[in-house]
Recover the amino acids of this structure.
């Protein structure tokens, strides 16, 4: 099967890159909450981080809560459900890649990052670094919001 995606889309939808973003998010979440991230929350990370329009509107620091940010950016809440559905298989594949390469561990309590991922400032280009920084922010948000509430805020069901 031939992949007809443009090179930028192929790069962003590379499962190794998705695994890196998920590990970055899980690491930030577990560091903030001192507990594993519930695995359903992982399906919220990539649809918030990968689309350029959403990523550019995410705050650079966790000064806003997820609910406050969504109140100020209702267009992202409206666009989230179809994006999440479109990225579900990619998220699954990225999770498998992360587990296979020991970037994430699945425990009874949720996802755990056994070692810190490479820092965003060391990423090979600015877009990669920006995605990683925003994945960390989303992880910190998800650390303090119950998964059911996060899904509800974003207008999707787990």
């Amino acid at each position: 099967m031939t992949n007809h995606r443009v090179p930028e889309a192929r790069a962003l939808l590379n499962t190794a890159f998705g695994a890196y973003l998920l590990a970055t998010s899980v690491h930030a979440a577990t560091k903030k909450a001192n507990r594993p991230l519930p695995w359903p929350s992982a399906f919220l990370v990539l649809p918030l981080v990968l689309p350029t329009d959403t990523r550019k509107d995410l705050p650079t620091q966790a000064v806003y809560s997820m609910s406050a940010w969504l109140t100020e950016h209702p267009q992202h809440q409206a666009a989230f459900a179809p994006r999440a559905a479109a990225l579900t298989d990619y998220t699954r594949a990225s999770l498998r890649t992360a587990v296979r390469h020991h970037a994430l561990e699945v425990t009874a309590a949720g996802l755990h990052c056994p070692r810190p991922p490479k820092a965003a400032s060391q990423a090979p280009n600015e877009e990669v670094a920006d995605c990683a920084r925003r994945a960390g922010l989303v992880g910190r948000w998800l650390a303090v919001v119950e998964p059911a509430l996060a899904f509800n805020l974003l207008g999707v069901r787990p």
